[in-house]
Amino acid sequence: MNGFHKKETNPPDVTPVVAENDTPSVENPEFPRNRRLFKDSTDDVLREMALKRVQERVEILQSEISRDVDRRLGIMGEQLINEMKRFDLNITELRSLFRDEKLMSNRKESEKKNVLPEKQFMNRNSLLTDLFEVKHIKTIYNLFVVFMIIMFLNTVVGDLVADGRINLGLSPIKVGFGRFHLSLLVWCGMQTTVTLMYYFFKFWAAGHYDLRTKEEYQKLWNNTFIVGYLCYLIAFISGSIRAVLYFDLPPASSLAALLEMCRLAMKTHAYVRSNIPKVLTGKIKSDEDLKKPAPVLPSFKTFQYFLFCPTLIYRDSYPRTKEIRWKVAFFHFLDVIGVILYLSFIFGLYKKYLRLFGELTIKYLKSFTLR
User: Fold this and answer.
1) Which among 34, 174, 210, 222 has most CB atoms closer than 10 A?
2) Domain parsing of the chain, residue ranges
3) Lowest mean pLDDT: which of 5-9, 153-157, 173-177, 276-280?
């Protein structure tokens, strides 16, 4: 061929050169781990951004709900005030409830002078039951229920977004009602002593009847009973207080025990005071008086019913409904539980502000006393 054509030759062996920027997986094992760390950090940033966005949305939702609730409550309050202004007191049910004639219709005038009228129990609704039948009083009750539900939802959503957990504010219940079994033990002791007092009273009544022919011994027996009864009341009150201090009961448990002490002490005195006239029948003036039978005292069942009956005035029998309204009792029990939860929720939610208020109050009182 001519000189312009080159002779075909085999290409020389070329060794591939690896660039500095090329990182084969075999020679640099750190690359996958760095890439995985970068991916994880990116996911964390995205997750934080999404969580922050959700939190902003929840805060906006909370503010909107609060504004809407405040607006609605304001409208309801204005409507309630306007209705009460237009309310005619001459035809209202509230006036009939608080009328003196109706409140005193269950009083029986005594034949003796300077003696309070005697109460007569009637089968009727309580004053609060009749009040809750009024529309406006029922509205106030519903407002408290709505406040509790709104506070509960607000706290639950806020705790879930901020802390990831729910704080229902039940710590005051756990702290306040701690050692409740010991409080029940103290209550059982008080109930036992009250039962012994019942039999002690029957024992005195039997002795008084047996000594009816011996006036001096009877008088001594009566004085002994009075001293014993006073000693019992003193020992009952002081012993209950000492038991509460000994077991170092928390506030709610100690308050329950002390209130039961007051209730049982007043119940015992009401029973003794109401049944003493049945025993003191007067002096014996003839043989016919000796033939009179012993006074009939109430049975133990009647005494136990009086202990749990919601009154401090003893009667041998009370007017009762034909059947027990368990549904009404259940809803009243739910009201009590709701009040306890409501107070615990408020104290648990604002305990730091209450603690600060208490510290400032103590500081102010100390500065006031130092003056």
Assistant:
1) 222
2) 41-103, 179-284+292-320
3) 5-9
